[in-house]
Design a protein that fits this description.
The structure holds two protein chains of two kinds. By secondary structure, chain A is α/β, with parallel strands linked by helices. Helix content of chain A is 35%, strand content 23%. Chain A starts with 14 loop residues before the first strand and ends with a helix. Chain B is built from ten helices and no strands. The chains are: A alpha/beta, B mainly alpha.
């Protein structure tokens, strides 16, 4: 277990996202106070912690969705407003535009950025090809299954070639088969493009499986319980879930979680 | 197959029972024939009156007044409602006014409108437009205000400007609620036009025809005009539903 103990000191990898002295409180009760954390470039980090510890809030503050009270957040040295980010919501049904066909949903972020239509077509077609989509993108979102809708959401988030992709519980409303498919695609994208990814998960198995590092948080006021590396090689497959390193990392994460959740 | 046919015919059961009851009541002399002619006589009279043109003319006038009132309400109400809905403080500051006048029966304002517009055609249209306007504004505003937060966030995080969010997300999102407003608005416009035609010195229109026929106990003509008015209201409503399911295809999904 020794080698798994977190390095909460300066990160070895090049940091892509730097959070410094972040403070945030809700109606007077502090959630984060002088919180520091780094997210390494080109890696997948999962955020996991007890209910109400503010996993999603942390990610939303980094993504610029939730305002911060004080502190500094940089993505590659820039503010979030200056960066190109992608965000995948848990409630795909509410994140899609039901008046647009699936294809036009994917094209939307490019169109509002006034990208020429020929390039819009090329980029949407290329992302669709890389996902090996077998359903009809000419249909409306409400005509697609949940997993298909979430896949469309992920393609929409990736079509702008974001520097960072944020995913808020992307699997929690999906069946197991679809979870496996999307896991595979995310890993594939990450290996091919080196996109930095931040995933919030309430499922420990999901949190560990895809991650290069697992950020384990305490109960509020929230601190880092451990920042656990999971250096298993890629691509990770269904068999990886029987790998000793995976099992060891998961049970260690679970132990930390138990310690923090029922502390 | 049979069950499918039965399903198709089910909506006809109500009207058939209605006309049968009417017919039996008249044939068995349960009601005074002076007050209620048989449905057959009424429908024949209606067809004749429509064919000779006087009932058709009244129908056209009422339809025209309702349409103008509705168009005014829609052209003013949809932009106004969406603008109000886009700014919560703005809406809150006028919410009471809208709710107050929405709860006030518009017919109560007819004398007031008579003072302003006199006994003109403009009066009937203005009061109907006002009544429909409140419904349109209220529904459009609510459509915008109740837009899914996630959808707005999604647009924002994709880099949309506030104007793009308003035009591409809020407006589209509010459409199904706006249509509810338009549909109830057109029904309200018809109600007010009919009432106005009855009591504000009209020379034409279905409302005028109904009250005129009643005054001279021309009951067949009165029932015929009532049936035509009902059909007009029904068709306006159905027309809007058809447009709605066609264009707001995502509504309720």
């Amino acid at each position: 277990m020794e080698q798994l103990v977190a390095q909460t000191g300066p990160a070895v990898e090049a940091a892509h996202i730097e959070v410094r002295r972040l403070s945030k409180s809700f109606s007077g009760s502090p959630l984060y106070t002088d919180f520091d954390v780094d997210f390494p470039r080109g890696k997948i980090v999962s955020i996991f912690g007890p209910n109400g510890c503010g996993k999603s809030t942390l990610m939303n503050m980094i993504a610029g969705i939730t305002p911060i009270d004080s502190g500094d957040i940089r993505i590659g040295g820039k503010t979030v407003k200056e960066s190109r980010i992608g965000y995948v919501f848990q409630q795909y049904r509410e994140a899609m535009f039901p008046w647009l066909r699936a294809w036009d949903n994917i094209a939307w972020p490019l169109r509002i950025a006034k990208v020429p239509e020929a390039e819009v077509k090329a980029r949407v077609d290329s992302i669709v090809a890389s996902f090996e989509i077998r359903f009809d993108l000419h249909r409306y979102p409400y005509e697609l299954s949940g997993g298909q809708q979430q896949t469309v959401c992920i393609m929409r988030a990736l079509v702008t070639r974001p520097e960072v992709l944020f995913l808020d519980e992307p699997f929690s409303a999906l069946d197991y088969e679809m979870t496996l498919f999307i896991r595979e695609k995310l890993q594939d994208i990450q290996m091919r493009t080196g996109t930095t990814m931040v995933i919030v998960s309430h499922d420990l198995e999901d949190a560990v499986f895809l991650a290069d590092k697992v950020l384990l948080l305490t109960r509020r006021p929230t601190r880092i319980a451990e920042y656990l590396p999971f250096p298993l090689g890629r691509p990770r497959t269904a068999e990886s879930m029987e790998d000793p390193l995976y099992l060891q990392t998961r049970s260690h994460a679970l132990a930390v979680f138990k310690r923090e959740a029922w502390a | 197959m049979t069950s499918q046919l039965t399903q198709r015919l089910l909506p006809l059961v109500g009207p058939l029972v209605f006309f049968a009851t009417w017919w039996v009541a008249v044939a068995a002399h349960l009601v005074n024939p002076v007050l209620m002619p048989s449905p057959v006589d009424t429908v024949i009279h209606m067809a004749a009156a429509l064919a000779t043109g006087t009932l058709g003319g009244d129908l056209a006038v009422t339809f025209l007044r309702t349409s103008i009132a509705f168009l005014v309400a829609a052209i003013v109400g949809v932009p106004l409602g969406t603008a109000l809905g886009a700014s919560a403080p703005l809406y809150r500051s006028v919410e009471f006014l809208i709710d107050f006048f929405r709860s006030t029966p518009s017919s109560a304002l007819i004398p007031l409108f008579m003072l302003i517009f006199g006994l003109s055609d403009a009066n009937k249209i203005a009061i109907a437009a006002f009544a429909a306007l409140l419904l349109v504004v209220f529904n459009s505003a609510y459509g915008v205000m109740n837009a899914r937060k996630t959808r707005i966030l999604a647009a924002k995080v994709m880099g949309a400007t506030p104007w793009q969010i308003f035009r591409e997300v809020l407006l589209k999102e509010s459409l199904s609620q706006t249509f509810v407003g338009l549909r109830t608005g057109v029904s309200m416009a018809l109600v007010i036009v009919i009432v106005a035609e009855m009591f504000i010195g009209a020379e034409s229109g279905l409302g005028h025809r109904i009250i005129d026929a009643q005054q001279v106990l021309n009951v067949k003509d009165m029932y015929a005009a009532i049936l035509v008015t009902g059909a007009l209201g029904y068709l306006l409503n159905v027309g809007f539903l058809v447009i709605e399911t066609r264009f707001i295809h995502w509504s309720g999904k």
